[in-house]
Queue: 2 jobs
Job 1
Amino acid sequence: MALDATGSAAAIAALAAAAGWESVSIYLLSGDPVPLYADMSQPTQVLLDDWRRMFTPAMNLQARLCVLAGAASGVAAFGLRGENQTAAAAFGVAAACNAGIFWYTLAKIMPVNRRLLTPGQAEKAEGEPGVRSLLKQWGEMHGVRTAFGAVALAAAAYGTHALLTRS
């Protein structure tokens, strides 16, 4: 049985976007400044400046990848529902996880982002211990998004596998 070009393209786009999103997410989770929040030898302002420097480019890239992964997963799930239910279900899970990432970001992480982003505001309102606490909170919440992303990537990989190995 020949693969449908649209379903195949959507599957590959979903897998690639999920892999890209997860790669950036793991990098941010393991890179500085967030894991250094407890290192008192690092000046708080340096940690905050580093976070602010990485935030906008990472947000722009991850937002696009999340939307692309979610949309492509949804298209693949919808398009494959009649001919490969295993792949369709896997891409449905991937789409749901990407929707979860988007919702969690808007509902939980954005309030922390807003408090950290405005120069001078976090420092004045939160003080040094408060800024470190916010960075710790951001890192923990980003870990939740990273877990959602890992499930989305695994589901997209499994869906692609199910699509390609079906005889």
Job 2
Amino acid sequence: MIGMRITGGVLAAGIAATAIVCSTAADRAPATPQAAPAAAVASPRPTETLTPVLELPLTNVAGKTFTSAIVDFPPGSHALPHRHGAAFVYAYVLQGTVRSRLAGEQAHEYHQGQYWVEPPGAHHVLTENTSSTKPAKLLVIFISNTGDKLKTEDAPTQGTSSTRG
């Protein structure tokens, strides 16, 4: 019972710290967007960017780490199918609308202020910004095994190439 209270406190503190970092990072963002090259060639659909904000070992839960991250989805972008290993995942929509689907489930749209959870081992087969003109942003919390990768993308299928390096 005490362990649950401490873990809940760490989760709340991590979310608060992430919110503070996000608001100050937004204040530092450039006011003018970068212009595209004049002779731009059609490019593959953009993907998301995951930026870890806080990583904290859970001292009352041996071998577990709390990580918060911001996931930015430019307009029209998506995430490649992926898994988060043995991590428990909580995703909260900070901005925009995101469509998400786990294997074996129907797709759902989540709007600013809504959230979803992913159990350990879940296969995330669809995550995309539903807007072609506005960005979307998530706060994602991972409770993972210390040292594990936070995200592993599926291997490209034959005849398909990944747009990420």
